[in-house]
């Protein structure tokens, strides 16, 4: 039974330590990003390149399905 008390106290200590680290990080401005949202609109979306093999298979499929 004493092991349970030990584990609970250690887990509470670790949780409090992580919470304090999080609060310090937020107060120091680590998560503030004012620049990126304002310029994100200006960037174009990247187009995904279709491999030539997939394009060829697609065109062959269309030819056979049209016939």
From TrEMBL:
Superkingdom in the source lineage: Bacteria
Record keyword Ligase present: no
Keywords: Membrane, Transmembrane, Transmembrane helix
Transmembrane region(s): 6-26
Pfam families: FixS (PF03597)
Signal peptide extent: none
UniProt entry tagged with the keyword Zinc-finger: no
PANTHER family: FIXS PROTEIN
NCBIfam families referenced in this protein's UniProt entry, alphabetically: ccoS
Protein name: Cytochrome oxidase maturation protein Cbb3
Protein's organism: Flavobacterium seoulense
Organism taxonomic ancestry: Bacteria, Pseudomonadati, Bacteroidota, Flavobacteriia, Flavobacteriales
């Amino acid at each position: 039974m004493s092991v349970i008390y030990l584990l609970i106290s250690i887990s509470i200590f670790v949780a409090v330590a992580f919470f304090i680290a999080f609060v310090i990080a937020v107060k120091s401005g680590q998560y503030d990003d004012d620049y990126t949202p304002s310029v994100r609109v200006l960037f174009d979306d990247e187009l995904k390149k279709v491999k030539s093999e997939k394009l060829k298979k697609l065109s062959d499929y269309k030819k056979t399905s049209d016939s």
